[in-house]
User: Fold this.
Amino acid sequence: MSTKEDHTVSLKVRLAQGVAQHRLWNKDHQELHDAARNGQKPSMIIYHNGAVDPAALLNLPPGTAFCVGAFPLILRDPDEIGDCASIYPFLAAASYATQNLGVEKHVMVITSNGPLSAYMRGEHQMGPLMAPWMDVWGSVVKEAEAFAAQVGMNDDVEEKNRIIALALLGRNAKILEEVVGKKVTRCYLDMESGVLEVHSHGDLAEMWRSSSEKRIGNLDLYKGPLQALACSCCDSRAGHGHLYCAQPGEFLDANVIAAIVPPYKDIVANKIPHPVWALTEHAHSLGVREAVVTGHSQCGGIKALVDWKASGQSPGKYLDAWVGQAAGVVDEVFDYARKEGFLTDDKGNISDKVYRLTEMRVTQWSARNLEEYFKDRANELGETYEDGKILAHYLKIEEREVYVLDLHAGIEETFKGMQSLETLQSSAQLLDAEGAPRLPNGQRQKAKRMIRGLA
Assistant:
């Protein structure tokens, strides 16, 4: 069996496990099943740095949290930086979740294996996609080092890294709280020890001196090699932690509105601090050579982009800047839809087919952009690029089914195949071979309760 076939079989097994897990959740929580079918009504938004999927970490069923994550989870002050892509994924998701979904609870999770600590120690080479973050990161490290010296922790490497993470948490939370007008719960996850530290407020000194009552241990995190880079929408109904039945830490997760990954050469040429591409470069430095992009139906980000292009009315500050990265894809879909006569329905509104086709085309476009990066890096390093390592999937929320998309299919082929997509997750034989899906331990349930109580 070829490497490509091995990888595909592995994904089929994971998807089958994920569907089984969804069925268990849906059986016990009918209201969550209805929410997943009829529209997401999340109770919180979680910001993370991509090292661990928060829905998997906290055992959150689909639809209960709006998740946004990318490396290295550095928020820039919008009043200081102006029009810069670095603020878009986090602030776009924050404004959308607050204004459009009515989310009141905000949680931020930073892990011990980032952000940028490996680069600061010289363990990985800083590439062009990571370098634009160094100005902000340098100021955070300077603050943390001064505090570490003050409390006598400069020689304790592990504790110093914790202090740096707490300093970044405090800085990010302050910026975010001013934007959304809500309190942000700050969480530090020690990936090595499996301990989650939760803070409802406080500056660096107060968080550092937190009591043991704010810590939850034995979280049973994944300790093996990273499986893949996974890019999905912020909508937790489409999260890879659910769809692949993944253990926390098994994937590097980029959760961004509409799973948008723009061409990386534009980012490099303009020296833009782009979180998704920073995560991609980080993943590559860790030896990751596989990626999957998952789009989904009922995508609010795609709807905002399509409606914006149709009406000319911006969906709102930050959101327009983020989804606008895929504006060219919508132009392609509009041109094709006009030619084929399905741009609008009988009432003159944008047809549902346009939304669905745009969701798929953005997913394919994002996956091709990732493929170009991995191919170019393989050529630079003298490696052999293996076809089939970058995948594009499409989740139909209404059916709870994931379908395969051809990265390189043209728009006509994609449109004609919309009604006959190949599913990856219908094999009962694969489930029988792998056994029942994994369920989280009690400590993860306890961590979820703590965060819900503080947020």
Notes: The CA atoms of residues 125 and 195 lie 29 Å apart. The chain is about 45% helix and 15% strand.
